[in-house]
């Protein structure tokens, strides 16, 4: 299956990515295949006696190594951008201040041959590492207490769904801000390789040392909250992605739109007519569902929800400024017709 994205590169969904230049094709299997392959290898390893649960006691040194790796990696990327750039330069990472540019990243899509580092790192090592750490924590809990708790199952299940979905819908990342706008520097490399696996697994880490009693009625309510969040998140992202790829696709052709001077249109009905960032709303509702199994006695499991709210509010503000610059009056019209940013009638 092939689809032409508005970004000028071609995607054979799930198999390879061909960037703008002719003959430049990445074929390294889909992200979802990478997840399944990892699951198979880990299962075989565990059956052969690999003590995966021991990972639970090595998180701090591993996080240190991941941070160091991200630092060295981004230093090499910075030098590569100076000596042998292979892609366009990022708008934000070329100020001339070496520290600032090292952090934000000079190149937009650094590559070696056809291998795109940002596209690879954004999805695979961090997300797959995150679910592996969660699994190790679940196995450790089983070793310590005889079986994993319901709360641990929920956290593992919800986050596996999120990661599996991201890798299944891998192509959708091509229209996100990180890929289209941000450079690949220390901030993103650290975020992808260290921050995501070690802090996004905080709820499972908390549950290992603070077991929580969770009954089925409360667990059902939490599952419902996660399902609502996932429905909004996936619905909004798919709607925008489908529309950006092909505005006449029958699934989005009936939606109301605002024309812009650039020739592109803005959706003003469907999910994108409810608030200006419905995908953030869904993501935040899921973040709440991931913390609730940990009870309400500690703040630590809510760290992700708090950090994520700050990240998305800042990101939303950044995106609004970029869209205003890109679309001018049409964006003002959109803001007038859809006045709320993330949460209807609140924000
Ligand atoms: N778990 C995590 O840690 C994180 C998750 N995320 C998630 O990643 C996903 C992507 O987020 P992000 O890249 O920030 O932003 P979006 O996917 O929301 O992309 C914003 C872009 O969408 C386009 N757009 C905005 N409004 C409209 C409209 N009405 N109609 C059509 N197009 C519109 C504009 O680009 P253009 O017009 O140029 O197409 C805009 O720049 C989100 O679901 C977010 O929740 C993000 C950060 C961290
Ligand atoms: C503190 C710090 C250094 C933050 C850097 C931010 C990064 C951790 C995030 C920026 C955008 C991200 C996205 C995802 C993970 C977190 C980072 C890298 C994402 C891959 C998670 C899964 C989603 O389904 C997604 C594919 C939409 C998402 C894309 C953005």
Automatic annotation (TrEMBL):
First-level EC class: oxidoreductase
Ranges that cross the membrane: 32-52, 59-79, 183-202, 214-233, 284-313
Statement: the UniProt record of this protein carries the keyword Nucleotide-binding: no
GO MF annotation, one: Delta14-sterol reductase activity
Main location: membrane
Keyword line: Cholesterol biosynthesis, Cholesterol metabolism, Endoplasmic reticulum, Lipid biosynthesis, Lipid metabolism, Membrane, Oxidoreductase, Steroid biosynthesis, Steroid metabolism, Sterol biosynthesis, Sterol metabolism, Transmembrane, Transmembrane helix
InterPro entries: ERG24_DHCR-like, Sterol_reductase_CS
Reactions accelerated catalytically: 5alpha-cholest-8,14-dien-3beta-ol + NADPH + H(+) = 5alpha-cholest-8-en-3beta-ol + NADP(+); 4,4-dimethyl-5alpha-cholesta-8,24-dien-3beta-ol + NADP(+) = 4,4-dimethyl-5alpha-cholesta-8,14,24-trien-3beta-ol + NADPH + H(+); 4,4-dimethyl-8,14-cholestadien-3beta-ol + NADPH + H(+) = 4,4-dimethyl-5alpha-cholest-8-en-3beta-ol + NADP(+)
Swiss-Prot/TrEMBL GO biological process terms: cholesterol biosynthetic process
Origin: domain of life: Eukaryota
Function comment: Catalyzes the reduction of the C14-unsaturated bond of lanosterol, as part of the metabolic pathway leading to cholesterol biosynthesis.
Protein name stated in the entry: Delta(14)-sterol reductase TM7SF2
Organism: Rousettus aegyptiacus
